[in-house]
Amino acid sequence: MDNLQKDANFSSVPSAPPPPASFSSNLNHPRMAAAAANPPPPHSPVAWSTGLCDCCNDISICCLTCWCPCISFGRIAEILDRGSPSCGVSGTLYLVILSLSGWSCLYTCLYRSKLRGQFSLEETPCSDCCVHCFCQQCALCQEYRHLQHHGFHMSYGWHGNVERQRRIAAAQALLPPPNVQGMTR
User: Fold this and answer.
1) 8 A C-beta contact, residue 152 and residue 79
2) Is residue 76 in some structural domain?
3) What is the pLDDT along the chain (185 residues), one digit of tens a residue?
4) By residue range, what is the domain housing residue 154?
5) Of the residues 117, 128, 149, 164, which has the maximum number of CB atoms within 10 A of its CB?
């Protein structure tokens, strides 16, 4: 049952609350205009689920990324883009960029930034572009592990994960409520 609850929370990505209705009317005040131009972050960044150099924590991901980084990247991109484009399209675009220019890191660093934005992650140990330019395989492994940590089954793709989530929700709806017994005298 704990795995079902953990799986049910895979799409819980933090989002900022909408501004109050009076927000736009206060923009005439100099301090409010400055605050609107540079709004504070909704909450402080959190740490990654694993470190950048923890590639060997999961040998299967490490091997996949070492020998076929296009597959690892394609799976990450499909989840972050919510199924469109697919893993195959993203992986192929990665290969085309790599073969034509050798600078696939410029493409993949955009998805690291997107992942950090969706999960409010720290930009460590350096900028996303530097991480992907100098440690691309390690970065892809870290991103892959982070999405797995949040309950995604990467080989299922986005649509497979959505279907899996529906099945889990349906199974939980069929379960009887827990039998809570109160105090008796």
Assistant:
1) yes
2) yes
3) 444 444 444 444 444 334 334 333 333 444 433 444 444 456 788 889 888 898 888 899 999 999 999 999 999 999 999 998 899 999 999 999 999 999 999 999 999 999 999 999 988 888 889 999 999 999 999 999 999 999 999 999 999 999 999 999 988 888 777 776 766 66
4) 49-171
5) 128
